[in-house]
Amino acid sequence: MSFSRHVFGAVQRRAFSASTRSNSKVAVLGASGGIGQPLSLLLKLNPRVSELALYDVRGGPGVAADISHINTKSTVKGYDPTPSGLKECLTGAEIVLIPAGVPRKPGMTRDDLFNTNASIVRDLAKACADAAPEANILIISNPVNSTVPITAEVFKSKGVYNPKRLFGVTTLDVVRASRFISQLKGTDPANENITVVGGHSGATIVPLLSQSGYELKGDQLDEYIHRVQFGGDEVVQAKGGAGSATLSMAMAGARFAESLLKAAQGEKGVIEPTFVDSPLYKDQGCDFFASNVELGPNGVEKIHPVGKITPHEQKLLDVCLKDLAGNIKKGVAFAKENP
Ligand code: NAD
Ligand code: LMR
């Protein structure tokens, strides 16, 4: 048997043998993009997903037709922006993943995407609030530090905001933090789980290496922290104008969706880092903050505090909170001024 047949056969056998509940509709908005396509593919391989609804301003039905031939049980349907397309895509969804919007080019910050992506996310959030007010909404579109507060404001304005069901996807930061430490230490990344808190851009990304018992020093520590904070820029540079991380992001988004489905289907102790409406630093202007969050059938079950950190990590956190408060304020102001 060829290698690829062997690998994909194994993936499918694992997929079919996992315990499942039969009705979980998952929608992807921005499904034909760089993230949307591989993310949809990974969701099609997930036996916890029974129905996959793929929407994009262009190409949703084509991606859906392609993915629908994969021999796993879930149904797949693509939707165009016809008057009822987005509504039909969202109706009945338990999870909505939103990677719609433009990615960075070299030289740009995530905040440079604000002018384009803020209104895209606002409009999609409106559709979600109307058609799927009880769904878990997973925001991938950047700048996450601002697009999550925008979504919250839209839901509030429609009277359906549930802070337990809105998530900024920061999983990729943790995936990177684990991978990068494993490269330094020669360990298996699957066994690494580095806590990362704060937000999702540059200095707002704060890895807490000390909590995993590591003590990097001097330049090695600085280089590690820089790599986690600016890992996205590494990919943007390497792609040379063709976009930002898509494949690793698809994996991270699929992992987060899988965790939510596991928790919804009764599994206990499912913990993921995510950017949520959080009490931790509200007194410092940060109504949203990423930390480890226990997930449950109602979404957010328990928000873990940051915990014990070193004085150096505290300094990083102080810088993070200042930047993050500004990003959040900008998102809230946009949503209020441009309803
Ligand atoms: P892309 O340009 O390849 O794909 C974006 C897709 O969104 C396109 O197919 C486009 O047609 C679609 N789209 C645009 N407006 C839409 C709308 N109103 N409704 C539905 N679909 C719409 O970009 P990409 O590489 O997939 O990145 C998407 C976003 O994800 C970017 O903002 C990027 O910065 C962000 N991102 C976030 C993370 C993270 O960790 N949270 C990681 C990587 C990328
Ligand atoms: C990432 O972390 O890879 C994403 O936020 C995309 C980007 O712009 O870097």
Automatic annotation (TrEMBL):
The keyword Transmembrane does not apply. PANTHER family: MALATE AND LACTATE DEHYDROGENASE (PTHR11540), MALATE DEHYDROGENASE, MITOCHONDRIAL (PTHR11540:SF73). PROSITE patterns: MDH (PS00068). Substrate binds at R104, R110, N142, R176. Belongs to the LDH/MDH superfamily. MDH type 1 family. Its EC number is 1.1.1.37. One of its GO terms (biological process) is malate metabolic process. NAD(+) binds at G30, A31, S32, G33, G34, I35, G36, D56, N117, I140, S141, N142, M249. The active site is at H200 (proton acceptor). One of its GO terms (molecular function) is L-malate dehydrogenase (NAD+) activity. Signal peptide: none annotated. GO terms for cellular component: mitochondrion. The lineage of its organism: Eukaryota, Fungi, Dikarya, Ascomycota, Pezizomycotina. Keywords: NAD, Oxidoreductase, Tricarboxylic acid cycle. Residues 25-168 form the Lactate/malate dehydrogenase N-terminal domain. It catalyses: (S)-malate + NAD(+) = oxaloacetate + NADH + H(+). Residues 170-334 form the Lactate/malate dehydrogenase C-terminal domain. This is Malate dehydrogenase.
